[in-house]
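User: My collaborator sent over this chain with a note saying "see what the structure looks like." That's all I know about it. Can you take a look?
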Amino acid sequence: MKCLVGSSVQQHLDQTHRISLTKVKFNRNISNFSLLFSTINLRNIEKFLRSIYRFPNRLESYKVIILVIVGSWKLEEMNALLKWTLLIYFITHIPITLLVDLQVLFHENYPKPLQEVFNWYFTTYKDYVIADKGLWLQSFIVAELLVQLPFFFLAVYGLIYEKNWIRIPSIFYGVHVATTVWPILAETIFAGRNSMQEIVILSGFYLPYFFIPLILALYMAVNPIPFPSKAKRV
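Assistant: Without extra context I'll predict from the sequence alone. Here is the result:
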């Protein structure tokens, strides 16, 4: 009986020791795991983690994967691809807002050629959200005019000259825009007014305006100093 009790205690101590060693090893190597996401899929990563660290179940492995995904956003400096993607997004958004989106509010006040472009867009792509000009959409466009449009110019300046003060405004902007595009996507996809082909095309138009602001907000949220090399200039 004593042998059985002693064996059980020893097994428990061994398991506790292995878990402690696992945490230590994970803390030392977490940065290396972010490289896995560019080469192998989620299932392989989960199997890899369980084989190396002997996690007791799949749930624990996925918890670690979530931590790695968040940790992989912490870059020493914003890379050129992300920076130029954001710059192109903001620069092109200025004429789109002025020439297209604001027609939801002031369609009759625009020159005839621009009105025809607006009407052609609806006729071609059957964007009923824009054509209906619902009150909820008009409220979004008012916010785009008063909040987003001024921010576009600030964002372009802040990204070109790598100003760290752009971080907090970027978080607010990214969250705001992602939450306004989400109901537009939902209306487009689930309202049942468009064919599948039209839904795919319209979703292709709207999804960049959901994901890019969301990526911007996430990046800025996990990087207290987006441009470390310019920190002294802020």
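A starting point for your reply to your collaborator: Residues 68 and 154 are 32 Å apart (CA to CA).
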